[in-house]
Specification:
The chain is of the alpha+beta class. The protein has two helices and eight strands, in the order αβββββββαβ. It folds into two domains: 111 residues, no CATH class; 55 residues, no CATH class.
Length: 170
């Protein structure tokens, strides 16, 4: 193996290892009013009246329409580890998925299992470069009892991120 191939292979291995141990920082805002993308415009918050491309979920929220900075409460580090292209799950007969979880269940409902499924490359012949990484994890306490009570943490979290792999040929 040539030197550049070994370097490229070790760099790729390092990037793959780093991708499996991703941490995120969630920004916490009070929920007095909601910033939404309505008819292509942010309805409130720091970007009120500016263009946006659409909301997500039943609340119609989007990162393009952040809430007002006056409602910022703090940041919460969350380890999204391990993310995988394989199925992943948390299970608990009692619904207590995380250490110190005050209310059994997940996402506001009774639960004994949380499942997420990734998708490896080459799974679909129509798009061999499509992939999904997914994971289930525990969201830690904020250290503030009032915020923990309102946010229902510590508690379970789940993420599923679809993407496309890119190949660069030299």
């Amino acid at each position: 193996m040539a030197l550049w191939e070994a370097t490229t292979a070790s760099t790729a291995a390092a990037k793959l290892a780093a991708a499996r141990n991703i941490a995120a920082v969630a920004s916490l805002f009070s929920r007095l009013t909601s910033s939404q993308c309505v008819a292509g415009l942010c309805s409130a918050g720091e970007r009120a009246g500016l263009a946006c491309s659409g909301g997500v979920g039943s609340a119609g929220t989007t990162v393009e329409c952040p809430p007002s900075l006056a409602r910022f409460v703090g940041r919460l580090p969350v380890a999204l580890s391990p993310l995988t292209t394989a199925p992943t799950q948390l299970t608990s007969a009692t619904g207590d998925f995380c250490p110190g979880q005050p209310i059994p269940g997940a996402f506001g409902a009774p639960a004994s299992a949380i499942h997420e499924a990734g998708a490896p490359l080459l799974q679909e012949l129509s798009n061999v470069f499509a992939t999904t990484v997914a994971g289930v994890f525990c969201v830690p306490s904020t250290g503030n009892g009032l915020i923990d009570l309102v946010a229902d943490v510590p508690g379970p979290g789940a993420v599923s991120v679809p993407g496309m792999a890119a190949v660069q040929l030299f």
